[in-house]
Amino acid sequence: MTTASTLTKTQLLVGGEWREASDGGTYEDFNPATGEKIADVADATGEDVAAAVAAARKAFDAGRWPTTAASRRAKVVYRIAQLIAERAGDIALREVRDNGKTIATAKGELSAIVDCFEFYAGAATKNYGDTLPPPIPTHLASTVREPVGVVGAIVPWNFPLLLASWKVAPALAAGCTIVLKPSSVTPLTAIELGRIAIEAGLPEGVLNVLTGATRSIGARLVEEPGVDKIAFTGSTATGKSVAAAAAATLKRVTLELGGKSPALVFDDADLAAAVAGSLYGVYYNAGQCCEARSRILVQAGIYDRFVSLFVEKAKLLRVGDPEDPQTQIGAITLDEQYAKIKEYCEIGVAEGARAILGAAPSTPGDAFANGMFWSPTAFEAANTHRIAREEIFGPVATFVRFSDEAEAIALANASPYGLAASVWSTNVARANRVARAIRSGSVAINTPYAVFPGVPFGGFKESGYGRELGTETMRLYTETKSVLTYIGEKPVDPFGVHK
Predict the structure, then answer these.
(1) Which CATH number among 3.40.50.2000, 3.50.50.60, 3.40.1390.30, 3.40.605.10 corresponds to the domain 12-257+463-482?
(2) Start-to-end Cα distance in the chain
(3) Euclidean distance between CA atoms 188 and 184, whole angstroms
(4) 121 and 185 in contact (C-beta within 8 Å)?
(5) What is the mean pLDDT of residues 84-105?
(6) Is the pLDDT confidence value at 2 over 90?
(7) Cβ–Cβ < 8 Å for 143, 482
(8) What distance lies between CA 277 and its chain's CA centroid?
(9) Number of CB atoms found within 10 A of residue 146's CB
(10) What's the pLDDT tens digit per position in 325-373?
(11) Where are the beta strands (DSSP E) in 358-418?
(12) What share of the chain is helix, strand, coil (3-state, %, to 5)?
């Protein structure tokens, strides 16, 4: 088995075969914590995209996977889960070195990835149709769910394998074939998933993996007429472009996009629990998380105490070596993301927000002098400030004061996004009343956790459409076919021509 430390060159997976890019091109992949090169990655061309789509199309049209018994598909998907679990340590380390996230975070994700594949292995045999009321007495009516076809799965760099599993697992369970396009900067675990899928018994061409240095590969995948559905996770701006391009060929589209999610802390909250949960909600994965609760709205009566305790605890968080199990905040994955975080901190100060924590790079030591680390950061801001309205995608919290429940709800909803939210209150009636009022795909009450297999995840407004992780996700990878069966004694003869 290849280990994370010895992987130096990768290939594309097309039609069940590992191959070089059509022009032999590669690009370099670096560890964002150290700046060290970790791999030469195959740089796919448009020709490779066409070949991968053709392989997926051939596998689908030949019925190698869509007509396989659901119970058999379930066994293969479950076997993928088992193999991931068996190699979790190596895969987690690979993810850490490719992404910069902490090893503790990566191990937690691996557990969730195994759960995701296991969940959809079970869902494969429960993709039920319906028996309908007879439209007329001589006819039976029913529906069946059939796989949508070839899926183009495009995943970002912040949770490379986790978000791939959210798409690959339900697509396989539904009987679809897939072309998986990981982010150019975090391709390594997608490649490992391809190896595992083959070992698990997936027929050739059912899962194809394309790596590429530029966004053009993903754009080409969206445009390919042989692709029936695009499942995309990424920025709202890119998601709009994906939807527009997919419309040209009327592809089905699922979009999980950006967020600027609020945490609403009421004056009857358990203060210590709200601080601990809010710290995790914004600084988890170095804030590089679409559902990060980075807008912390705090009721006036506890505002000063909450902010003081939050800052006190945030100063204790360890930033540094992602491979150290004690580290809580790892590296920033992209140099352009690092620059964006710095720019937003400068914008915040220029607009009058008050920096009360961080707002500066972190320097964890000589071994990481070439890495990219940002200290936990917090601002006191107004909801009109850009840092309180726009997605930063880094470890930057903004505190906004509110007076009452109505204002809290108004502030929470005063955003083009609607992905996730947290509500902190010991008043059960209030917490649930506010949860219903927030325009958001997920609301977590007295917890920072909002994502579990089996619990639908997705956004309102500009945070996208469609849901991942739930049983309803299977509907997004299938088409409904109506079947009408005549059961009358005489032939159907509307024109009276039967003699």
Answers:
(1) 3.40.605.10
(2) 72
(3) 10
(4) no
(5) 97
(6) no
(7) yes
(8) 21
(9) 16
(10) 999 999 999 999 999 999 999 999 999 999 999 999 998 888 899 999 9
(11) 377-380, 396-402, 417-418
(12) 40, 20, 40
Q: Which amino acid is at 371?
A: G
Determine if the pTM surpasses 0.90: yes
Looking at residue 362, its amino acid is S
C-alpha neighbours within 13 Å on the C-beta side of residue 142: 9
Q: List beta partners, residue 222.
A: none
Radius of gyration for the chain, computed over Cα atoms and rounded to the nearest angstrom: 24
Q: Are 253 and 230 in contact (CB under 8 A)?
A: yes
Residue 1 confidence (pLDDT): 34
Q: How distant is the alpha carbon of residue 88 from its chain centre?
A: 19
Give the β-pairing of 150-154 and 229-233: parallel
Joined together, the tokens standing for residue 463 give 């945070």
Q: Of 39, 469, 15, 9, which Cα lies nearest the Cα of 209?
A: 15
Q: Given this model, what pLDDT does residue 64 score?
A: 84
Side chain identity at residue 190, one-letter code? A
Taking Cα atoms as reference points, which of 134, 400, 360, 162 lies closest to residue 260?
400
- Judged by phi (left if over 0) then psi (alpha if -120 to 50, else beta), residue 352 lies in left
E strand or H helix at 144, and its extent? strand 139-147
CATH top-level class of 262-445: alpha beta
Give the pair of three-digit tokens for residue 492: 């159907």
Phi-psi category of residue 237: left, alpha or beta, with phi > 0 → left and psi -120 to 50 → alpha = alpha
DSSP bridge pairs for 380: 354, 399
Q: Which residue has the tokens 């309803």?
A: 472
For 383-437, what is each residue's pLDDT tens digit?
999 999 999 999 999 999 999 999 999 999 999 999 999 999 999 999 999 999 9
Q: Quickly tell me which residue has 């912390």 as its tokens.
A: 296
Q: What residues does each domain of the chain span?
A: 12-257+463-482, 262-445
Which of 218, 213, 260, 264 has the alpha carbon at shortest distance from 242? 218
Catalytic annotation, residues: 256, 290
Nearest to 41 by CA among 190, 233, 180: 190
- Compute the distance between CA of residue 20 and CA of residue 29 in angstroms, rounded to an integer: 16
pLDDT bin (cut points 50, 70, 90) of residue 7 is: low
